[in-house]
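Write out the 3D structure for:
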Amino acid sequence: MEHKTTYLDNNILYRAMRLLYSDTDSLVDRLAPEGWANSPYHFPFEVVDGEREALYQSYDTVAAAYKGKFGPLSQQYISKNRYEIDFTTQASNSFSAETELIYLIEYAILQLSTNGLFFKAGAPYSYYLIDDLDLEEQSYLLGIELDLDIIMTPEAFRPTAARADILLYIDLSVLYAFIIGAFCTQGIDWRYRNDELSGLWINHKIATRMQKTSDKPKKRNLLEILNQLLTEIENGLPPDEVIGYCLTYDRLPLGYPPTIEDIKALNQYDFDL
């Protein structure tokens, strides 16, 4: 059986994204019936009281510690990073709900590619990833074609690290459902994949080989750790991507909950494109 991984065709990516981008007003209303400004989806783009000062303080603290040991630090360290802080904590009232939604769609598509794999329905042995540059290109083209309220320069729309990280903890399952549904119309399905589990399996195999030729005391079996994580995943709440898939297909995606057999099978693919 041939095992292949490549990037998703740009034409398919474009058509799926067009379905989402051409209906942004409806998506905003469906995601945030209480109003976009009052929703968790808008929060990562808000100015947070005290955030700018806290970021200033972190750089001032590091600069003071350096000065105490080695003498004054280049003033550029403070001035350059204060400029970056000012830029990423600027008032966001110039950003529309549509612009923020498109940012979230791009983020969610990349998360689906990071935590899973796309494949053509009925052909689950040739998997596809999505390249971030391809995603940006299609977003740019659609922004022009549909005359969207979108920021064309990615650097001009950049939340702070803390607000970007909060996206990992906001419930995006409904947004994932819309995205997975858009890919479904193009005959593209999605399956779950967990890089941490795959890494443990690979390290377990390496450790097993090394243990056979080593006289050192045996360390904790990585396979035990892997099995423990598999049990925790099976007994825990599914990630938002999986919930979004269930909302679309009314069933769990391929690969969830993960098993050692599935991890071993995925190990035959090369995902370092």
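The longest strand covers residues 116-120.
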